[in-house]
Amino acid sequence: MVFSVKISRIFIRKQLITNFKNLITMGLFSFIKNAGEKLFGGSESAEEKATKVKDHLSKFNFDLSGIQFNVEGDEVTISGQAKNIDEKQRILATAGNVEGISSVNDGLTLKEPLKIEIPDISKTMYTVKSGDSLSKIAKEVYGDAMAYNRIFEANRPMLSDPDKIYPGQVLYIPQG
Fold first, then answer.
1. Could you give the count of Cα atoms lying within 13 Å of 4 in the half-sphere of its Cβ?
2. Rounded to an integer, what distance in angstroms lies between the CA atom of residue 65 and that of residue 1?
3. Tens digits of per-residue pLDDT, 52-69?
4. Cα angle vertex 148, ends 147, 149, to 5°?
């Protein structure tokens, strides 16, 4: 049992990290070209367009130090380091919502590392002891005996009745 829990914990950790890496990886995002803030007059050079996009974003108090903008046609490429994941997404969305820009090429990395919280697997599994009930377990893990239904629902179809648990049975305890 301990061996399989360790393998499951490693697998879950790898999956969570992969999912978060996919969230922050660079890519190309599409926008509606003829919608958004009107910044361009029509005769600007690529450098002038890049400056206008950067100036527009600076109005929103983003930390743009170390961030570069490059415009080619209707695509803006943004590279450098964003403060955090929230600011990165806001920078990309704001740049894409400029009339005349149809795509944003994300070349941003993060200054602040992502904080990934992985649940303690030892707290998500509970081995039923003699004399246990779902109410007693709920009181122990949640501080509220009436939260027993949360454990019951999480363990369907293994459990068909909240009063039918037995010693040695391992139950999943939802967190959060």
1. 2
2. 51
3. 999 999 998 889 998 999
4. 90
The CA-to-CA distance between both ends of the chain, in Å, stands at 24
Give how far the C-alpha of residue 9 lies from the chain's centroid of Cα atoms, to the nearest Å. Answer: 19
Distance between CA atoms of 154 and 59, rounded to whole angstroms?
47
DSSP assignment of 77-145: EEEEEESSHHHHHHHHHHHHSBTT--EEEEEEEESSPP------HHHHEEE--TT--HHHHHHHHHS-G
Comparing CA positions, the residue from 157, 114, 98, 131 lying closest to residue 172 is 157
Torsion of CA 157, 162, 168, 171, to 10 degrees: 60
List pLDDT tens digits, range 74-98.
999 999 999 988 889 889 888 988 8
Residue 23 neighbours by CB distance under 10 Å: 10
Phi (first) and psi of residue 48, to 5 degrees: -65, -40
Counted residue by residue, the chain has a size of: 176
